[in-house]
Amino acid sequence: MVNWIQMHDCYGEVDHVPALLERVELGDDAEAWEELGHRLVLECELVFPAGFAALPYLVHLASRSSRARGLAGTILRCAAGHHGCDDLLADCADAIAEFSELLDRHLQTRPVDYLATFLDLLAAKEQYHWSAVLGDFTDDFYHLACPHCAVEVTIAIGDHGRYSAIRDWHLGDVDRRGLQPVSSGEFSGIGRWMHETAVRDGHGALADGIAHLFGKAECPRCAGVFNIADEYTSANRPVLR
User: Fold this and answer.
1) Residues 51-54: contacts with CB under 8 Å, at least 24 apart
2) How large is the average pLDDT for residues 172-193?
3) What integer pLDDT is reported at residue 236 of this predicted model?
4) Domain positions in the chain
């Protein structure tokens, strides 16, 4: 049983969220859902204690409510922020595991919100950096420092090409070098899960983009070769407290 007296929302109030949860459980109350979103999460940057307290309730509703699924996913995507609620988040472990299974089943239906669901599931797996930046690979760019010479390298994966380059704000991406995608047998860790899931669900463009993202790039400045995902993860993975 949640002690709501200690679970303030973004307005510092403790009584509105339980009442709103009762309203949405009784029916698809659009006004209540909108107010819940405003009270639990601040612009997808900060989750309040009431957000984590509400998460198990949202997961319970998620199998029959796209609004509940979306709000639960938003809360998890923001969980890497400095919310000061680590104990509350840890208490949600069972609900997050249940939510992960629900999201995976939803992905297998090939829904119109496939990418959003994919990103929510990455957040549920604590892959917050990928959840925050992964796109559909029509126009994706990643900026990272070459581990060999420290020059900033732009990684492009999309309809415009798949390359590493030095970005010149007057000339655009110059000295382009083609990326080396990883083969399916060379995947490991979260990259393997991401690729296998996209392949399983028939999302070839997403799978191909992931293969390039977890492949290798050549630095246009020093010609050093490095693993794109490893360098990006090292520079961007949130430090959970």
Assistant:
1) 51/9, 51/75, 51/78, 52/83, 52/85, 52/88, 52/89, 52/91, 52/92, 53/2, 53/4, 53/7, 53/17, 53/88, 54/17, 54/21
2) 95
3) 87
4) 4-133, 139-236
81 burial type by CB count under 10 A (0-12 exposed, 13-18 middle, 19+ buried): middle
Please name every residue paired with 157 in a beta bridge, in sequence order, or none if there are none.
140, 162
What is the spatial distance between Cα 81 and Cα 85, in angstroms, rounded to a whole number?
10
Kindly report, residue by residue over 38-92, the tens digit of the pLDDT: 999 986 678 999 999 999 999 999 999 999 999 999 999 998 876 778 888 999 9
Query: Residue 125 and residue 140: Cα distance in Å, rounded?
Result: 22
